[in-house]
Amino acid sequence: MRQLxxxxxxxxxxxxxxRGEIAIVNTCGFxxxxxEESINMILQMCxxxxxxxxxxxxxxxxxxxxxxxxxxxxxxxxxxxxGKFDYNGILGELGVNYRNESANERVLTTPAHYAYVKxxxxxxxxxxxCAIPIITGHHVSRPMEDILNEVSQLVAQGVNEFQVIAQxxxxxxxxLYQERKxxxxxxxxxxIPGVEWIRLHYAYPTDFPIDLLRxxxxxxNVCNYLDIALQHISDSQxxxxxxxxxxxxxxxxxxxxxxxxxxxxxxxxxxxxFPGETEEDFAKLLDFVAWARFERMGAFxxxxxxxxxxxxxYADDVPEDVKQARLDKLMRLQQRISGEIQExxxxxxxxxxxxxxxxxxxxxRSEFDSPEVDPEVLIPCNGIKPVEIGSFVWVQIERADExxxxxxxxxPNE
Length: 414
Ligand code: SF4
Description:
alpha/beta; six-stranded parallel sheet; 15 helices; 3 domains; pyruvate-formate lyase- activating enzyme; binds iron/sulfur cluster; Rossmann fold; 36% helix; 21% strand
């Protein structure tokens, strides 16, 4: 987006009410739901083109990379499809030359006070069910100096919260520096003045870099939050999934995380209905979730993805109604746990970043809440001094409902 801007275009990102004469749809091709959402957006744009409100329509991203030929044949209204990393292709199509010197400059599609910073692309793991390595290829770490430079530029733009993301965060540095460098990277990010919060998304449990936990514990601006997908707990399922970790090691890791970073909030993901999952496997998963008491959890039902090991070698043998019933049961258990955890926050004072004003409430998040996916903190705005969006306040939590917390500001704004 920044490169297009430098080439003279005005660029906006608004999927709800798109404007402009040229649309570029960036797609995801990871699982069925994401593919469907991408296709729906393309078709919506095709309609605008047919109606004459849009002159050119381009599609890029993972879905385009993965199903290029099928998409060209099926959706002729699209002017051109580009692969996931074909930035030069799309710039060339629009008459813009790539400027290397501006490679780390960004146009944010998030609110101005937070940003996602991607530290690597691709993944060298080969989880049996996962299409990501097929689409994005091997793990490629970005040079540390580039990332730090980007963070400094974003701070200068007004960003104070950083969601550090990668398909496999803990592998950062292995390809480029022949060692795990995530702890060093975060420690150097923390030292950049203006970086208020750093949040870590998508860690992998096997060979977890324990020194990262020290960095989290010692630095108040690294959120006590870790998103670590575990997928299952039964040894046979973990082995079939090619996760290279055992049930016992997983239990130990959770203990270590909770011991080394007191108060850490863990977000995880599980998969139910993977080939061969028995009632006994599923019962182990329920026991584990009840024991671990994850603060946040997502779950989804397995489906074959083209080209993956499990699609090629295993039968999708858990009936759909069983998958759904397991998913519902797991989510009901988690709902109870996260409800209890939310309730425990009543009476506490939390540092909250204000994301937006909506109706009668300022809506914010604590260090335990990532944007889009986690609960929010709602603060009635009537009768209080206006609060700047993107600023931090201290909030006394008064009550909790199933998802969100409610409270009032107890200090002058920071
Ligand atoms: S670690 Fe994550 S991205 Fe990599 S193959 Fe496994 S599930 Fe896919």
